[in-house]
């Protein structure tokens, strides 16, 4: 069973000569333990878990790597449990946990250093810088467009986040065009990748932007805690929804975005109106339009009727007035009529030419004239 | 095409004017016709049910 010659490829290639998994891990463990004596390691605690057994499991990390650690109950029972993000020194024995084939540190001593670890400090420093520049001012938050025509998404091209966003937009607001700008959202290149995606979108005619990914541990979300990414998000000309998908940790990207959504689906819903609702609204508007026109035409008809009535009333009263005036005039005329004078017994004499005779000189003897009395005329002659 | 937002805002204004003002029948008819036309356009836009998805690739657009 003992390990055979490690470099005998022919032996390894044959079924009899192949190493078992257990042999490899055992050999690797021996190599690790021989090559790396117990040592002090400095790093930040992440994914800390205390099991019922009292054993602690966590990772130690820095900006470039992480290490799995175990600290057994008999070593940790006097210590207060550390929390994620805490910067610590550990004295530990590097080893290989054969059952899982994992490289790990068996921690014998753990010392915490300053308040908050490297990450937390970097976060607070960047947050302070963003605050100082007014980028976290709530007054900067823009409203989402009512009816977006183009929705841009910066996320991993093959992640669940994109699928979720696409499904929600397709259901709620298929009128929009989804502009997907793929980016690496985790790993060493994530910061640069997200920044260049944002930069590309700056020049596109886009109404709203969703930046995000679907969950992950806080160290996976590190790109969204980069000050550079945060500043790029703040500088976008259109409203930005951050959907970094981490319940407990707010990232810098969340803080500078115009809206923070819990999940990519929630972000897509926040970015879009519901087509069915808008259609229903159109129906209501159509009904109001028709009703308003009916009302307007009824008003017009009523006004026409009223005007007709007024015209008729007007003519009637005008007629009445005229009739009254006529009666008055005729009474007046009657009073002035010479016939009335004749009726009282006077007579009018007229010569042959019809001139009224007023003087004796107009009537030499023998002149014929006419005499008008109340009921007629008679011929007469002066004697 | 005019945005759906402008379309719906103008529609709202048309309906409010029609409802509130004592317009001449001629003006009311003109407003109504405009409203119906805008409603038709809005419905046409809303009739689109196929989401367009465009991927902007790494090289594309980086130099424009």
Write up this protein.
The complex is a heterodimer of chains A (383) and B (64). In chain A, the strands form three sheets. A five-stranded mixed barrel of chain A has the order 1-2-3-5-4. In chain A, strands 7-6-8-9-10 form a five-stranded parallel β-sheet, with helices on both faces. A three-stranded antiparallel β-sheet of chain A has the order 11-12-13. In chain A, strand 2 and strand 3 form a beta hairpin. Helix content of chain A is 40%, strand content 22%. Chain A folds into three domains: 36-116, OB fold (Dihydrolipoamide Acetyltransferase, E2P), CATH 2.40.50; 120-275, 3-Layer(aba) Sandwich (Rossmann fold); 347-381, no CATH class. With 383 residues, chain A is an alpha/beta fold. The relative contact order of chain A is 0.07. Chain B is mainly alpha-helical and 64 residues long. Chain B is built from two helices and one strand, in the order ααβ. In chain B, helix 1 runs antiparallel to helix 2 (25-46). Chain B has one domain. The A-B interface holds A 145-147, 149, 157, 166, 169-170, 174-182, 196, 200-201, 203-204, 275, 278-279, 281-282, 285-286, 288-289, 292-293, 295-297, 299-300 and B 3-5, 8, 11-12, 14-15, 18-19, 22-25, 28-29, 32, 35-36, 39, 42-43, 45-46, 48-58, 61-62, 64. Strand 7 (177-182) of chain A pairs parallel with strand 1 of chain B.
Helical fraction of chain A equals 40-55%
The topology string of helices and strands of chain A comes to HHEEEHEEHEHEHEHEHEHHHEEE
Which CATH class of the largest domain in chain A applies here?
A: Alpha Beta
Succession of helices and strands of chain B: HHE
Number of strands of chain A: 13
Helix run count of chain A = 11
Q: How many distinct folded domains of chain A?
A: 3
Average pLDDT reading of chain B: 81
Poorly predicted regions of chain B: 59-64
Please identify, by name, the CATH architecture of the largest domain in chain A. 3-Layer(aba) Sandwich
Number of helices of chain B: 2
Distance between the termini of chain A: 191 Å
Q: N-to-C terminal Cα separation of chain B, in Å?
A: 25 Å
The biggest beta sheet of chain B reads: none
């Amino acid at each position: 069973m003992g390990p055979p010659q490690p470099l005998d490829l022919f032996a390894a290639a044959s079924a009899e000569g192949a190493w078992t998994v257990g042999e490899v891990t055992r050999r690797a463990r021996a190599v690790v333990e021989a090559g790396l004596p117990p040592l002090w390691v400095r790093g930040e605690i992440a994914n800390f878990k205390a099991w019922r057994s009292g054993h602690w499991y966590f990772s130690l990390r820095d900006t470039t790597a992480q290490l799995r650690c175990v600290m057994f109950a008999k070593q940790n029972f006097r210590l207060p449990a550390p929390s994620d993000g805490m910067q610590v020194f550990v004295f530990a024995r590097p080893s290989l946990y054969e059952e899982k084939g994992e490289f790990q540190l068996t921690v014998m001593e753990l010392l915490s250093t300053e308040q908050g670890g490297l990450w937390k400090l970097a976060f607070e420093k960047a947050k302070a810088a963003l605050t100082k520049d007014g980028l976290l001012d709530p007054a900067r938050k823009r409203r989402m467009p009512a009816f977006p025509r183009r929705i841009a998404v910066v996320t991993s091209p093959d992640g669940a986040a994109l699928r979720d966003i696409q499904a929600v937009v397709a259901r709620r607001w298929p009128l929009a065009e989804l502009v997907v700008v793929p980016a690496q959202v985790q790993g060493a290149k994530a910061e640069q990748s997200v920044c260049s995606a944002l930069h590309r979108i700056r020049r596109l005619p886009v109404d709203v932007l969703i930046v995000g990914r679907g969950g992950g541990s806080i160290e996976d979300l590190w790109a969204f805690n980069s000050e550079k990414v945060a500043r790029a998000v703040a500088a976008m000309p259109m409203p930005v929804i951050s959907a970094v998908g981490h319940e407990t940790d707010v990232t810098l990207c969340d803080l500078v975005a115009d809206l923070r959504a819990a999940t990519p689906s929630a972000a897509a819903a926040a970015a879009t109106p519901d087509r069915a609702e808008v259609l229903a609204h159109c129906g209501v508007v159509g009904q109001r339009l028709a009703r308003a026109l009916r009302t307007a035409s009824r008003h017009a008809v009523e006004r026409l009727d009223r005007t007709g009535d007024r015209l008729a009333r007007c003519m009637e009263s005008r007629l009445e007035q005229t009739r009254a005036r006529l009666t008055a005039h005729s009474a007046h005329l009657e009073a002035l009529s010479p016939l009335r004078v004749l009726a009282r017994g006077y007579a009018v004499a007229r010569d042959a030419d019809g001139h009224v005779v007023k003087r004796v000189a107009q009537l030499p003897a023998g002149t014929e004239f006419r005499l008008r009395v109340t009921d007629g005329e008679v011929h007469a002659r002066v004697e | 095409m005019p945005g759906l937002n402008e379309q719906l805002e103008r529609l709202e204004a048309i309906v409010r004017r029609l409802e509130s003002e004592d317009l001449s029948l001629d003006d009311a008819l003109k407003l109504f016709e405009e409203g119906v036309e805008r409603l038709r356009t809005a419905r046409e836009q809303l009739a689109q049910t196929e989401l367009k998805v465009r991927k902007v690739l790494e090289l594309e657009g980086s130099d424009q």
